Request: fold
Amino acid sequence: MATKLLALACINRNESRAGGLSPRPHYPSMPKYPRGAAAEAITAEAKALFAVSGMSCAACAGSVEKAIKRLPGIREAVVDVLNGRAQVLFFPDFVNEETIRETIEDVGFQATLIQEHDNNERSTQVCRIRINGMTCTSCSSTAESALQAVQGVQKAQVALATEEAEVQYDPKVVSYTQLLEAIEDTGFEAILISSGEDMSKIDLEVDGVRTERSMRIIEQSLEALPGVQGIDLYPEMKKISLSYKPDVTGPRTFIDVIETTGSRRFKAKIFPEGGGGRETHRNEEIKQYYRSFKWSLVFTIPVFLTSMVFMYIPGIKHGLDTKVVNMLSVGEILRWVLSTPVQFIIGWRFYTGSYKALRHGSTNMDVLIALGTNAAYFYSVYSVLRAATSPHFKGTDFFETSSMLISFILLGKYLEVLAKGKTSDAIAKLMDLAPETATLLTLDEEGNVINEEEIDSRLIQKNDIIKIIPGSKVASDGFVIWGQSHVNESMITGESRPVAKRKGDTVIGGTLNENGVLHIKATRVGSESALSQIVRLVESAQMAKAPVQKFADRISKYFVPLVIMLSFSTWLAWFLAGKYHGYPESWIPSSMDSFQLALQFGISVMVIACPCALGLATPTAVMVGTGVGASQGVLIKGGQALESAHKVNCIVFDKTGTLTVGKPVVVNTRLLKNMVLREFYELVAATEVNSEHPLAKAVVEYAKKFGEDEENPIWPEARDFVSITGHGVKAIVRNKEIVVGNKSLMLDYNIIIPADAEDMLAEAEGLAQTGILVSIDREVAGVLAISDPLKPGAREVISILKSMKVRSIMVTGDNWGTANSIAREVGIEGTSVIAEAKPEQKAERVKDLQASGYTVAMVGDGINDSPALVAADVGMAIGAGTDIAIEAADIVLMKSNLEDVITAIDLSRKTFSRIRLNYIWALGYNVLGIPIAAGTLFPSTGFRLPPWIAGAAMAASSVSVVCCSLLLKYYKRPKKLNNLDIRGIKIE
Reply:
C-alpha cells in the first residue's frame, strides 16, 4: 500500500508540472563527461526520447535511470513514470540510441525510440507461449531468433528449462496468432499460455445448449455486462472463455446470467481441467518418452543379442551365420529388419527435428544424432547389399550401433524430462496452496449472516464475504471484518510463527487459519492476489537468463558445426592412416576393416559432444534456486539478481524499519512516587490519548496492557486538555493536574526536576532512548523511556555477516547521537555509520562504495530507500508484505527478518557454485570425452568408445547436470541462523 501511495504521489507531482518531463533530482547524476575524456574533444550532445513501458512507480523509474547513467557518455537522463517516457542527453562519440534502448530493456522494461515525427504512442503487450520440442540451447536460440524477426515484436525471450517464451509485442502491428505461427514455422509446437491483456480470464462449461442460436443468445447476454472485455465460443466443447475486469464483474455473475437466459434450461460451471498447464504437458512428454524408449528396447535387445551375445554361443552362432544369398547371412537380415523400425519410426523425431533446424540455417542435437545414426545404419545397409551381391565380400554391419544409440538417447531424454519436471516443483506447490472451495456468506443490512453457501474458490469475486473455519485455508486476499484467530503464513512468507489476526487485519489467500473463525472481505481475487503475484514473479525469475548463461549461448551457436567438423576430421584421419598404413594392421579388430574402424571413431565423436548439458547448466540451477528461495520467503527476481548477490561484500542497512522495528515503544518505566503502576498509566494514557503524536500513541498502546480490556480500554475523562507542540501535553484527570512531556515543558511550568529524574534522563539518552517526564500535581512522579527497538537478532546478523567477510554499513536520516548508539548496539563500527542522510545522499554513498571496489547490497523498506535500492548492485526490500510485484528491489524479503539477508546471500552463493559445477562438468565432460571418442587412447591402450556407449555417456551428462541442480532443493540455511535466538522485543 505504501508503495502504491508513493507511486500516486509521484503521479500527482508529475501532473502538477505542465509540459515536458518531470525533473527528478532524487537520483544522482553521472559526471558531465565520460571518465578520461577532455571536454573540448567531445562533439555536441544529442537528445533521444524513448517510450518505456512496464514502469509502475518511482522505484521502477529509478532503476531505469540508474542503468542509463552507468553508460559512458551520458550527460543526463530523466525518466517520467506517468507518461512512460525517458529523455536522455548523450554524447554520440561514446554511446548511441540503440545501446541506450538495449540497456533499458536489460533492466526489464520495454523501450522504443520515439522519432520526432512519431507522436502516436505505441502500445505494448506481453504474451507467454509454451514451446514443445526444444532439446538444446540451439533450439531455444532458433525459436528466439524467429520471434525477434517478426515485425512488431519488441523483445523475445525463450527459456529452454521452462520450455516457454515471453514476447513483448505491439498488438497494432502483430497478433499473438502470428507469433504462434512463427514458432511453428521453425518446427516446434506452440501453445498460448496468456495473451498479455491486463485482465482476468475464466472458462465456463455450459450444458443444455442444443443450437448455435442458443450459444449466440448467451454470448450477447454476456457481452452486455459491464467489465466483460472478450468472449470466445467453442460450441463443440460446450465451452465459453471470458476475459473481464475483476473490479467490475466476476464468474458468479456470468453463471447467473447464463442460467437466467432464455427458458432457464442452461446450466453453467467452471470448465473442468481449465488450465492443463505446464504440469499436464510435462506428464504427457514423460509418458511419450517412456513409450518410445520401451518400444525401442523391444527391437534393440534382439539386435544387441544377435550381434554381441549369440555370436559366442556355438549352436546359435551357426544358425545366424547361415548364408541366404552369396555372403548375406540370417543374422544380418534379422538385425536389418529389427533396427529399421527403431531408425525410421521410433527415431523419426530426430529426422523432423534436424530438418526443421537445418531449414532455418541452424544446427542442434537432433542433427548430430541423425547424422551419427544414419552413418551407422546406411553403412550397414551398404554392407548387407554388398554381401548379397558378392560371393567373396566379408563386411560387418553396425545395426546395433544405430538402434542402441537411439535407445540410450531416448532413455537419457526420459530421465532428463523426469528431472526437469522436478525443477518447477516450487511453482506447482505455490499454485496448490489455493483451497478448492470457499464458504460464501450473505449478510443483511445490519451485518448479520442470513445465508451460507459453499462455492468453488475460483468463483470468489471482489468484496465477497468469506467464512474461514479453523484448520482451513484462507480462500482469498482480504481483511478481517469479524472474529479473531492465528494464521500460519509460512507457506507464503516463510514465517513459521502463527500471526494473530483480528478485525481490520489483512489476510493472504492460501495461508492456514489455525484456531478461530474469521469472516473476511475479499479485496484481491484472481490474478491480483498475492499468491498469483508470487507465482508470476517466480515464473518470470525462472524465465530470465543469468548473464553467465550468455557464455553457454555463445558456445552453443558454434558448437554443433564444430563437432560435425571434428567428427569428419576424426573419420578422415583414421581412414587415411589405415589406407596408407599409418598404424599396424593388428590394431584393427578382427570383425572390422580400417574404414569401419574410422567410421566408428567419427560417429562416437559426433554423438558424445551434444551441447545439451551446457544449455541446461544455468537455467535449471536458477529455477531450483529461485523456487527454494520462494519457499523460504526470499523472492529472488531472476538470474541477474542471483549472480550479483553471490559477489556481495558490503551491505548498507537503513536504520528505521530495517535494523529497528520502525515503531516507537515504551521500553522502561521508573516511578518516583509510591503508587500502583496501573493507576499511573491510567492517568498518563487519559492525558495522552487526545494527542496524535507517535510517542503519545506508543504510551497509550503500552498502557493498554495494564487495563482489564486490552481491546477497547475505557480511560478516565480528561478536562482542559492542552497540547504544547514539540514539548508535551497537559490535562486535568481525576481532579489531578497531569503534565507529560520533556524537560523544558517541566521548567516552563516551574516544576522541579529531582536529581534521580535527571540521572534517568541522561541514562535514556545514552541508550538512544527518548526520556519523558510525568508530573502529577506539579511533582515529578515518573520517567518513561521510549525507543525504536532493534529488530530481534540484529546484532547476531551483523556478527554473522562479519564472519562471512561482508562489511556492514548503517545509513539513516536520524541524528548522529542516535545513529552511533544503535550502531554500537548492533556491532557496526563508528566509521561505518552515515547519519542525517537524505534519500539521494544514501544513493550517493552507495555509488561511492561501488567506486571503491565493493559489490554493494542495499537493505531497506523499498519506499523511501528506493534511490539507494536502485543504485546498489543488489537491492533487498525488507518487509514488502503483499505489494511484492511493484518493488524496485532485486530481492524481496517477505518475512521482514534480518536473518533472511544472510539466507539470500548464502542461497545465491550456493546456487552460483552449483552453476559453476554444472559448467565444469558439462565442459570438462566434452574436453575429456571428445579426445577419448576420437581414439587418442586407442594406440596405447587399445581402448575405444563404441558409438552406443558414447550416446549413453552424452545422455548421462545432461541428466547429471539436471540432478546436480536438483540437489539445491535440499538447501538448508546456514546453521548459525538455526542457533540464532530470534527473541521477542523485551519491554521492561
About this structure: Residues 899-933 form the longest helix (35 residues).
